[in-house]
């Protein structure tokens, strides 16, 4: 099994994500309680051509990423009441754990394999690092969605930069801008 530049297995879980009511409070909690940081914050994200349950979507979220060891941690705050994979989760389960992120070098091929195992597509959108993420539900007893995250050179550069920053973090500048690699 190949490893991504930041140490996680290709086609394996590389991210855990939570939906939160206030992203800034959540960041402070993760820093103060668990010493996870710095956080890379994207104040508003809708994705490119987002589709939720087969329909064009227009919801926005704030999101922040950091690393705890080799595991990418994502915090997501819905910014409106439009239907979304995030709002749906909060209405059904409340705030908290939301999804497992799985690295995928071929999202469409992996999507076919997940469908064969009983998963169905819930959400799809283009992302700043290139390609599209796909959220899936079903297929067993997982306590959250599965997100297929496209692995490409931009994604590896961006996530590797976040990882390197967490390894060298001295506790200063808790929140930094989320800037996709050029």
Word description of this protein:
The structure is a single chain. The chain is α+β, with helices and mostly antiparallel strands. It is 25% helix and 38% strand. An 11-stranded mixed beta sheet has the order 4-3-8-9-10-7-1-6-5-2-11, sandwiched between helices. It has helices at 23-34, 85-93, 107-116, 153-167, and strands at residues 13-19, 39-45, 48-52, 55-56, 61-68, 71-78, 96-104, 119-126, 132-138, 145-150, 175-177. 36% of the residues are buried. The protein has a single domain (13-168), classed as 2,3-Dihydroxybiphenyl 1,2-Dioxygenase, domain 1. The protein has 4 helices and 11 strands.
Secondary structural class:
alpha+beta
Any low-confidence stretches, pLDDT <50, length ≥5? none
Overall mean pLDDT stands at: 92
Question: What is the CATH first-level class name?
Answer: Alpha Beta
């Amino acid at each position: 099994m190949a490893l991504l530049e930041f140490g996680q297995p290709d086609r394996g879980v590389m991210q855990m994500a939570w939906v939160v009511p206030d992203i800034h409070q959540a960041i402070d909690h993760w820093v103060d309680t668990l010493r996870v940081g710095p956080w890379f914050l994207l104040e508003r994200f809708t994705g490119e051509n987002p589709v939720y349950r087969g329909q064009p979507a227009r919801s926005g979220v704030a999101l922040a990423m950091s690393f705890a060891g080799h595991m990418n941690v994502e915090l997501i705050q819905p910014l409106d009441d439009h239907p979304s994979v995030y709002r749906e989760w909060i209405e059904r389960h409340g705030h908290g754990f939301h999804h497992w992120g799985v690295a995928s070098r071929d999202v469409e091929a992996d999507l076919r394999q997940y469908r064969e195992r009983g998963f169905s597509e819930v959400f799809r959108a283009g992302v700043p690092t290139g390609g599209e993420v796909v959220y899936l539900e079903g297929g067993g007893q997982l306590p959250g969605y599965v997100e297929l995250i496209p692995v490409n050179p931009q994604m590896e550069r961006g996530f590797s930069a976040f990882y390197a920053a967490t390894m060298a973090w001295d506790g200063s500048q808790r929140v930094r801008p989320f800037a996709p690699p050029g």
